[in-house]
Design goal:
Elements lengths: L7 H4 L1 H15 L5 H15 L2 H13 L4 H6 L11 H14 L1 H4 L3 H10 L2 H23 L14
Helix pairs in contact: 2-9, 3-4, 3-6, 3-9, 6-8, 6-9
């Protein structure tokens, strides 16, 4: 994989600064870190963004997330490892990541509304929009995730 642009952050600093400000507002919200990382991981899985999957799996593990919950995330609907709150966030993540196909169904919004207050609903929606934009930036420009040299097959 060869990056299309070596340093997109340097090429568009004002846009990146705006995205980072959005990230800070989400981080300062009442959304817990575990939900934030699960949402980022799930959207990144859907979008096939290796760079973001690597980043958010690493961050989630550093904050106490279990390996099994990360492994099972792609099949969260069939696993008892996720809380009702996490399930609502993941359903909304999938609905908005696939919004052209789903139209953001009322049923998914009802699940969201049952678990999150209005401010959290907005923050979660901003989070989903942000990670989808980060995914598009990294996939579109072919960003390469860090590689542990000891794990690279010869």
């Amino acid at each position: 994989m060869t990056p299309r642009i070596k340093n997109p952050f340097k090429s568009a600093p004002d846009g990146i600064k705006a995205m980072m400000a959005l990230e800070e507002s989400i981080k300062a919200s009442s959304l817990d870190h575990q939900v934030i990382e699960l949402v980022k991981m799930r959207a990144s899985q859907i979008n096939g963004c290796a760079y973001c999957i690597h980043m958010h799996a690493t961050d989630a593990r550093a904050h106490g997330e279990t390996e099994m919950r990360l492994y099972m995330l792609n099949a969260w609907r069939e696993s008892p490892l996720y809380s009702d709150r996490e399930r609502a966030a993941l359903a909304w993540t999938e609905a908005l990541t696939h919004v052209a196909d789903t139209g953001a169904p009322d049923a998914d919004f009802a699940l969201l509304s049952a678990q999150f207050d209005e401010a959290e609903q907005v923050q979660l929606t901003l989070l989903i929009g942000a990670i989808n934009l980060w995914n598009r930036l990294q996939v579109g420009l072919r960003a390469v995730h860090p590689v542990d040299a000891a794990r690279v097959a010869a």
